[in-house]
Amino acid sequence: MTLKPVRVGICGLGTVGGGTFNVLTRNAEDIARRAGRPIVIEQVGARRANPDCDTTGINVTEDIFEVARNPDIDVLVELIGGYDVARELVMTAIEHGKHVVTANKALIAVYGNEIFQAAHDKGVIVAFEAAVAGGIPVIKSLREGLGANRIQWLAGIINGTGNYILTHMRDEGRAFEDVLAEAQALGYAESDPTFDVEGIDAAHKLTILASIAYGVPLQFDKAYTEGIARITADDVEQADNLGYIIKHLGISKRTDKGLELRVHPTLIPKERLLASVHGVKNAIAVMGDAVGPTLYYGAGAGAEPTASAVVADLLDVARDITTAHHYRVPYLAFSGIVEGDESLPIMPMEDIVTAYYLRLLAVDRPGVLARVATILSEQGVSIEAIIQKEAIEGELVPIILLTHRTREKNMNEVIRQLESLADIAGPVTRIRVESLDEQE
Amino acid sequence: MTLKPVRVGICGLGTVGGGTFNVLTRNAEDIARRAGRPIVIEQVGARRANPDCDTTGINVTEDIFEVARNPDIDVLVELIGGYDVARELVMTAIEHGKHVVTANKALIAVYGNEIFQAAHDKGVIVAFEAAVAGGIPVIKSLREGLGANRIQWLAGIINGTGNYILTHMRDEGRAFEDVLAEAQALGYAESDPTFDVEGIDAAHKLTILASIAYGVPLQFDKAYTEGIARITADDVEQADNLGYIIKHLGISKRTDKGLELRVHPTLIPKERLLASVHGVKNAIAVMGDAVGPTLYYGAGAGAEPTASAVVADLLDVARDITTAHHYRVPYLAFSGIVEGDESLPIMPMEDIVTAYYLRLLAVDRPGVLARVATILSEQGVSIEAIIQKEAIEGELVPIILLTHRTREKNMNEVIRQLESLADIAGPVTRIRVESLDEQE
């Protein structure tokens, strides 16, 4: 039985577009054997050529919207990035009845609900494996492989730049700014690193993962986001002494009150597998009620790792292109999501419950520790460990606190009161602590 | 749009059967939302009741073949284990036009080719995610998620019992027999542990993974299998001193000469993520040409982890049940495999290339090291590290050697010559060493 080729239009021939072009070309024979039909590049829409790609014999246009309207294209691959033009391109392709594959996390996190609604109405596929954690097939694993489970929580290192910086801060005892500058020089960080180090990129990805895990609409605007710029080499060292490592995690948990959706620096026990994920690599830990803890690891960015996910989506499209729409895997894993499901609200940050690491500088006077302990006790926060270091900076003494799990609201009050004490100098550093064990 | 329920017949209500029954029942609502249709247990075939399962209102028969012939069953779930009856049951179900889901690695590794041929001829699905690494969706990841890639190698901890034993030997400096006895007392090891500790179970799973990774027929009889019973506490300690950890790995590599397919104890660098996989957990590292290194981690056995994979397969069946057979994902990832593809032969063990750890006991005489080094040199084996310890057992001195990569045939000759030296007492211990880096 010979099936017709699937005809692909690639929009954007930059890093990921070039990688996709090359993987589709290099592995064309294997890909056709997997799909049962060839997947051919029918057209490329790009303003600039990519010196790594030989487009000889390929129809190349500078007008990406020509690809979205081309009647000979079955699937548009959106790899231009950004919000507005990408959104218009994808909506145009859907209008013209084309399936869409995209690696654009910002687009899906922010405009996914409307894109999926439009695609649903047209009966076309929108696939986005490459939008989260590059080449790691975590969308497929969550949406299909763990489909038997009620997901209880997930936690991921889903920004390679941030993990690169934290890894080098720890291994070499260096300061954030120092490693960031190096990462920029090496091309691992953008000249404007805000998206990466402030956690916005990770929040885009976490938003997508949470929707798929729990069956809720995309709600990027409700994600809590905190960056890693305030982490000091001393925090990294203190965490190490306490048996922890600091990672910039995207965390989403199912609780009685709704869903937690938060990106922030986090202390995790050294013995967790996530703690051994170093450099630019990504990994996502997922806890299901049946399967227990699982983890998915790999390259979260880069030309060919991301292309690997784009082409995997194209393989799925090739298999499902003639399938009736209601037999396809739902965009957000559960049927009916695009219409909205508010049964699991995203919780405000002050309602989340976690443990905390606090670092404060106290005046070296008798009774300071007692006053600190009293403030915690009055807020119902119990202390797991307290370490008073030797005095530095004249008479100031660093105090490190590790608390048991408590509500963020109580911790906010603790920190407000601590900072108003005359004995405490400057702001209190607060880093959340997650055990990521099977019970949580 | 309301679709008809998918009607499932579960054969076997032991550990995995009971887990599957309970997950399908407990998460029925979520599962139906994912599949777009309910997945209902129409019949159970089991000789004994499972006290953990409430089968009230379910049609239970003691004759599993009644399930295979029942016209009201769409999918037979084979969870009885073993070879012959399971094979007959699955073939009967296929004859009767039923789709099959199985967790039976021995069945697939040994009889998979004929089962897939029969299923192909009947146009039915045979799904077996649960046959490898329990709840980890590694079959789906390899077969679909990494479909863009030419897989270069894979290496996995795919037997929980063996990993439990090695973990405790290392953490507590204990002997193999001692930890095995404990694992048996705790129910982590069978009273006859042969399948687990001799690597047969791992070879079944490796055989399946390799077929899917490279697109070759199942060839369990060509897998090399070596157990962990000869590993000593001293080997574990020496490996540790050299920066390695010993894991019982299933390894399959694509080379110019064909495929390597081997299960044996292996020294791997401590910094590899696989080295941090402890206790009964499983993990599989996969290297693709586009994606680079990836890893999949989770519970490799147990009632509900395995059920998680069985139910994921049922979700796939529910989606594909009305799909024409040639649009479905091929059993072994590539179309045309069931007819056989000999383009990638499984290599004989003596042709594989790897590095080696050798431990020998030498008489404490001048010139021994030189004689040892000469033997290696004459076989073209270069030495990375050589450690001569203090004398034990009278005048015997343990010598630890770490070699660079060489052909197994040459190493066999080295060991033959070493063991024939008058200066060397007893057999030479040989453990293979894999760097598992991105280049290999």
Automatic annotation (TrEMBL), chains A, B:
Domain ACT residues, every copy: 357-433
Binding site for L-homoserine: E190
PANTHER family: HOMOSERINE DEHYDROGENASE
Biochemical pathway: Amino-acid biosynthesis; L-methionine biosynthesis via de novo pathway; L-homoserine from L-aspartate: step 3/3; Amino-acid biosynthesis; L-threonine biosynthesis; L-threonine from L-aspartate: step 3/5
Protein residues bound to NADPH: K105
Active site (UniProt): K205
Keywords attached to this entry: Amino-acid biosynthesis, Methionine biosynthesis, NADP, Oxidoreductase, Threonine biosynthesis
The keyword Oxidoreductase is annotated on this UniProt entry: yes
Annotated GO biological process: methionine biosynthetic process; threonine biosynthetic process
Protein name as annotated: Homoserine dehydrogenase
Similarity comment: Belongs to the homoserine dehydrogenase family.
Gene Ontology molecular function: any one: NADP binding
SUPFAM superfamilies per the UniProt record, alphabetical: ACT-like, Glyceraldehyde-3-phosphate dehydrogenase-like, C-terminal domain, NAD(P)-binding Rossmann-fold domains
CDD domains with a match to the protein in the record: ACT_HSDH-Hom
Pfam families per UniProt: ACT (PF01842), Homoserine_dh (PF00742), NAD_binding_3 (PF03447)
Reactions catalysed: L-homoserine + NAD(+) = L-aspartate 4-semialdehyde + NADH + H(+)
Chain residues that bind NADP(+): C11, G12, L13, G14, T15, V16, G17, G18
EC number(s) on file: 1.1.1.3
